[in-house]
Amino acid sequence: NCSLRRKDFNRMVQKILGEYGAKKEHIKEEQKELVKQLNEYLAAQKTLTASLKEQLIQLSSGRIKKESIEATITSLKELFQNRGEALIGQLRNFQIRLDTFQKEQEEINRKMQRLVERGDSLRIEDLRALEAAEDREKRKMERQIRREEVERYLLQCKRQRHEIDLSKS
Q1: Per-residue pLDDT of the chain in tens (169 residues, 90 and over written 9)
Q2: Max CA pair span of the chain
Q3: 37 phi and psi, to 5 degrees?
Q4: What is the C-alpha to C-alpha distance for residues 154 and 14, in angstroms, rounded to an integer?
Q5: Whole-angstrom Cα distance, residue 83 to residue 155?
Q6: In angstroms, how far is the first alpha carbon of the chain from the final one?
Q7: Is this structure's pTM higher than 0.85?
């Protein structure tokens, strides 16, 4: 009575494969977006570095004052530090999601292989256990990403507090 009909098996496998395809596509899109953001970040760094180089040349010829360059350097430092940290955070989150995706797929492959080996004795509970394992991995990944975000936020707050303390001194 608890055995699995071929129709139910096919439906559940299609669901698993559909979710796999959607996750894979999402990861590819996210990877493209990160590459685009990194390229934009590097292009901005190159542009601003060239600008700073030009200002240094103007400083050496006496056309601008040292304070102008110091202000530019300070603004560049803040801009790149904040944007760089944000990109690093995004890369870490992507790496966590990619690792989790790969682990999920390895686990699904192992479980599906065990199900195939069982053959005729396959039951609905076996496939439900497979779905439950997927859900657990998803929640685990979400917790890990959230933990990383909180750590970055706390580090940022600590840096800002330190900068405020230095500016008061």
Answers
A1: 456 677 877 887 788 788 888 888 999 999 999 999 999 988 988 888 888 888 888 888 888 888 888 888 887 888 788 888 888 888 988 988 888 888 888 887 887 787 777 766 667 777 777 778 778 877 887 888 888 889 888 988 888 888 888 888 7
A2: 91
A3: -65, -40
A4: 42
A5: 15
A6: 77
A7: no
Q: Which helix (H) or strand (E) is 38 found in, with range?
A: helix 6-60
| Count of positions (residues) in the chain | 169
- Collect all residues with Cβ–Cβ distance below 8 Å to 89 and sequence separation of at least 6: 148, 149, 152
Residue-wise DSSP of 125-155: HHHHHHHHHHHHHHHHHHHHHHHHHHHHHHH
104: its two tokens: 């999920």
List residues bridging with 123 in a β-sheet: 3
What CA–CA distances, in Å, run from 27 to 33, 107, 108, 124, 166?
10, 18, 18, 30, 42
Sort 125 into a burial class: Cβ within 10 Å, 0-12 / 13-18 / 19+: exposed
